[in-house]
Amino acid sequence: MLLSRHQVMARRERDAQRLERSAYLLLSRIDTQGPMSIGQLAEAFGLDTSTVNRQTAALLRCGLAERVADPEGGMARKLRITDEGGRRLAADREVNRSCLARVVADWSADEVRELEDVLVRLNRSAEALEGRHWPRSEDTAREHEGR
Predict the structure, then answer these.
(1) Is 69 within 8 Å of 77 (Cβ atoms)?
(2) CA angle 111, 102, 24 (to 5 degrees)
(3) Cα(91)–Cα(25) distance, integer angstroms
(4) Which residue in 100, 97, 89, 92 sits closest to 6, CA to CA?
(5) DSSP character string of 29-83
(6) pLDDT digit string (tens) for 71-107?
(7) Range 63-70, long-range pairs (CB < 8 A, 24+ positions)
(8) How many C-beta atoms surround the C-beta of residue 82 within 10 A?
């Protein structure tokens, strides 16, 4: 909870243009998984489609995402990140990384690796309980499984 609060405060202090939490989460998921429909996003987050519809409407209005035809030929239109959305997501990720780096600045490399391993385990355990797994790139999965 404290870590989350630390990141929220850093978000407000540094740049009023930082992404809202819901925008960050939706863009992160689309970035990882590729274009997704509102139904797929609702299912991925365990939210009502009306909630996701409102959140994605905000992304569209801000030019952070765009509607595209389903790349696989399905009927539903999907949401894809725009160049601006990708730029803003990358900038927010970098600020989050730098905030976390400040928190663990005086930790040893072994302590940081131990935290990474425990957080991966915590996330995967939470995902297993919810039955909703977050897709990860092959590099990230291999990196953590090799430890």
Answers:
(1) yes
(2) 100
(3) 14
(4) 100
(5) HHHHH-SB-HHHHHHHHT--HHHHHHHHHHHHHTTSEEEE--TT--SS-EEEE-H
(6) 777 778 999 999 999 999 999 888 888 888 888 999 9
(7) 64/19, 64/23, 64/27, 64/88, 65/26, 65/27, 65/30, 68/35, 70/35, 70/37
(8) 17
